[in-house]
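Hey, quick one: can you model this chain's 3D structure?
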Amino acid sequence: MLFTSYGFIAFLALVFLAYYLVPKRWQWGLLLAASYAFYCFAGWECLIFILVTTLSAYGIARAMGYAAAKEEAYLALHREEMEKDARKKYRAAEKKKRFRILLAGLVLNFGVLAVLKYTGFVVFNLNSWFSFGENGLAIPDLLLPMGISFYTFQTMGYLIDVYRGKTTVEKNPARLALFVSFFPQLVQGPISRHSDLASQLYTPHSFDRRGFTFGVQRILWGYFKKLVIADRVLIAMRTLLDEPEQYRGAYVALLILLYSIQIYADFTGGIDITIGVAEALGIRLTENFERPFSSRSTKEYWRRWHITMGTWFTDYVFYPVSVCKPMMKLSKWSRKTLGNNVGKRVPVYLATVLTWFLTGLWHGAGWNFIVWGLLNCLVILISQELEPIYARFHGRFPRLTSSWGYGKFMAIRTFLLMGLIRSLDCYRDVGTTFRLWGSMVTTWNWGELGEGIFSLGLNAVDFLIVLGGCGVVAIVSSLSAKRSVRERLYDRPVLSWTLCGVLFLTILLLGAYGIGYDASQFIYNQF
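Sure thing. Here's the predicted structure for all 527 residues.
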């Protein structure tokens, strides 16, 4: 069920109405039923996979919780007779047992994800590498359930947090099922933590006019980004990508700009709808974006873009890999062999490369995504090494580096660099992408762009709408940094609802749907 479909809007209206009419003790059960009903629209056969994830996570978490409780009970019973070293040894042995239980859950669930998402990619590469030709391995056409990457990562984060003792074990399987399947975030996140979300899902909520108003406003804002901007830009992008070799040079630069606009409007629009739906239900989800295009560096950009994904990989991949025993041994060896200055970087670099390799692979089963991840990694590591030079430059030219213009220059530079790397997502083929990057220098057709831009499926009015929409988004994003804006508008209900009405009419009149348009699924729904 598309977020942009009439069916979803009707579904949402029914959920809102029922949620505040049923007895409060039934609210979480209603959300569970709504979440599974929503998931069924993606295909009944998908249910088995989300059920496997939910039931396996429930069993694994309960087993770890039982083992932890048994350990504490044993220690309490034998505390006086056990010396400190004995208690430490016992705890270490019990922790290993719990880790084996956790590992079983991770292998099962990540294994299911890997088989469904990456089998075709692996078989395709085996056929290519070993030149099997017509007698090659058949590429299986496997079902990829909606949102499997998101709910798998969220649920495995829950298991890891249970193992670490950072969240409580959910003893009610139906409640855990709601945490796994909460319908607004199934399509594209955010990836929530159990300690942040679970209690909100199960707590009764009375109707709150302020929260409901803010939620509806956020939903409308998301539809504006998606339908007025993202889906309109998509028309021109499809033309550029149908035969990419025909659109070289200046058209590559245009595609980089258009895709930056499209993915931002699409992804943040979807997140706005998700957070708005949850807020209307009295539930606060984690923000996933914080004005990423104002970032001055790649590292800062990834602290602001898809925040929950970045923190997931940092907390559950980068840090554990950085401090694991094999890495500590490697660190000790590299410091001794390569010197302290170089040796101390080895474990950090390896953990960073692995994290970004997996981040790229998470985004899609293709070499373009892997190269995308590794290029981001390369830029971050180079910037990290150049930090002493940057510091000296800032110290020598403090007035320049603290100026408004220099800050905008840094933001524009980061925007263009991220857009360039991001174009790997568009062209999909790594070789084609690199050739087209080079064509921006070798093919000088910038003069043709003035007329050629109107042969991409959009007319002058469409481009003016996109430009105006981007301006509105930029202004609202700037104002949203001041958290009192929504509250001040709420205190002026006539102005607040007038703006909502204008936004609603704008979506109806200028939304990219109808003849010649196709309201597309959100980009991140493929994950």
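One thing worth noting: The mean pLDDT is 90.
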